[in-house]
Amino acid sequence: MAFENLTERMQGVFKNLRGKRKLTEEDIAQVTKEIRLALLEADVALPVVKSFVRKVRERATGFEVSEALDPAQQVLKIVDDELTEILGGGESQLQKSPKIPTVIMMVGLQGAGKTTFAGKLANRLKTEENARPLMIAADVYRPAAIEQLKVIGNQVGVPVFDKGTDVSPVEIVKEGLELAKQNKNDYVLIDTAGRLEIDDKLMNELEQIKEVANPTEILLVVDAMTGQVAAQVAKTFNERLDITGVIVTKLDGDTRGGAALSIREITGKPIKFAGVGEKITDLEVFYPERMSSRILGMGDMLTLIEKAQKDFDEERSIELAQKMKENTFDFNDFIEQLDQVTNMGPLDEILKMIPGMSSMPGISDVKVDPKEIARKRAMVLSMTPEERENPDILSPSRRRRIAAGSGNTFIEVNKLIKQFNQSKKMMQGIMNGDMNSLLGQMGG
Ligand code: GDP
């Protein structure tokens, strides 16, 4: 899987920070050094690495120590923000022309995955927008390319226009566009020729095609496995053709992921899709935020951190934690905690955001039924203040009274008290152990 090494490295970085209450200058120096190494190892282009590290250093040095997050979490947040930024910020949609057809031109080096991507995109437009695309086979130098596009076209049920290998690509494109107009195709996807390396002749030809086709999108297809080379290729293509977006293919492969991280910064152009396999459906919209979380190996950990920051009453949480530690946690606190959890949203959703949890068997069965919470609440509210503060006095007769008072059975009241005692015990264990339990889940 792409980014694996980077992910591992990054997790190492955060592990070293875990448990610290304050960040010293040495800590920051150490962290930025590690990040720098991690990015270089991932084959990210040097200028990109430099500017990235500088930004992280500046922000990490300047941050206010927040009460809600410890330094490891704060640095994680900064790195995530900056990663998201260099990956392009938000997602980038495919542009449409106001008049049909929208012309999309695929360019790139040979073997990058242009033809495959043309097929994937055609399929996507067809299935998601109910569109009627036409593909034009303009790669006349690699005879197999035309055949390959026809096979893919056939597979996805999209027509392919070709004129063999004896007509010039510019001529083929002109005729193909005429046909698309006649047939009222809403999209035209042009598969152009690639070379093993960039040469002037290829660029000239692409410039000519651009001129006759006037494309809304010129999508450069690059192979993620080529790392810095991909970034360099992107730079050159962009200078000559003013591309509108980049497609990074083979992100499923054993890549270091550097290409994806360098391209945006170097070209200023967004990555629009990622190819994640050889199948026609192996195409994903490129979401910088998700990619960043994936690189950092956090599942949606950040969303969770943000949620916790937003929804939890910081001081009150600390007080409750203290009570658990001192074993003075009672039913009043219990009810308060129930409310906090209810405010945060469905528990199963929250659990799934913790890395590694979503793949745990049975996780989808963890449902917190709001009715269940309401019932527990009712039972607690049927207790006297004394009982709530001192659950040890809950004798069978008191339990029976509570059951009757709250419209529950004796068994249910017993269950609640048992649960309360169990979680109290468990929480006490956690509280007296590693308080950094949230990040502790990361990477073990
Ligand atoms: P072109 O020369 O740029 O048109 O490249 P092709 O579309 O012929 O792709 C070259 C090779 O890469 C083919 O074997 C494709 O199956 C493969 N390929 C393309 N995209 C992906 C991808 O996202 N993941 C993987 N694993 N293979 C891909």
UniProtKB/TrEMBL annotation:
Cited InterPro entries: AAA+_ATPase (IPR003593), P-loop_NTPase (IPR027417), Signal_recog_part_SRP54_M_sf (IPR036891), Signal_recog_particl_SRP54_hlx (IPR013822), Signal_recog_particle_SRP54_M (IPR004125), SRP (IPR004780), SRP54 (IPR022941), SRP54_GTPase_dom (IPR000897)
Record domain SRP54-type proteins GTP-binding: where: 270-283
Enzyme's top EC category: hydrolase
Coiled coil: none
Main location: cytoplasm
PROSITE patterns registered for this protein in UniProt: SRP54
Keywords: Cytoplasm, GTP-binding, Hydrolase, Nucleotide-binding, Ribonucleoprotein, RNA-binding, Signal recognition particle
Keyword Ribonucleoprotein included in the entry's annotation: yes
Amino-acid positions noted as binding GTP in the UniProt annotation, renumbered to this chain: 108-115, 191-195, 249-252
EC number of the protein: 3.6.5.4
Protein location: Cytoplasm
Keyword Repeat in annotation: no
HAMAP family hit by this protein: SRP54 (MF_00306)
Functional description taken from the UniProt entry: Involved in targeting and insertion of nascent membrane proteins into the cytoplasmic membrane. Binds to the hydrophobic signal sequence of the ribosome-nascent chain (RNC) as it emerges from the ribosomes. The SRP-RNC complex is then targeted to the cytoplasmic membrane where it interacts with the SRP receptor FtsY.
Subunit architecture: Part of the signal recognition particle protein translocation system, which is composed of SRP and FtsY.
Protein family (similarity comment): Belongs to the GTP-binding SRP family. SRP54 subfamily.
Domain notes: Composed of three domains: the N-terminal N domain, which is responsible for interactions with the ribosome, the central G domain, which binds GTP, and the C-terminal M domain, which binds the RNA and the signal sequence of the RNC.
Protein name: Signal recognition particle protein
Gene: ffh
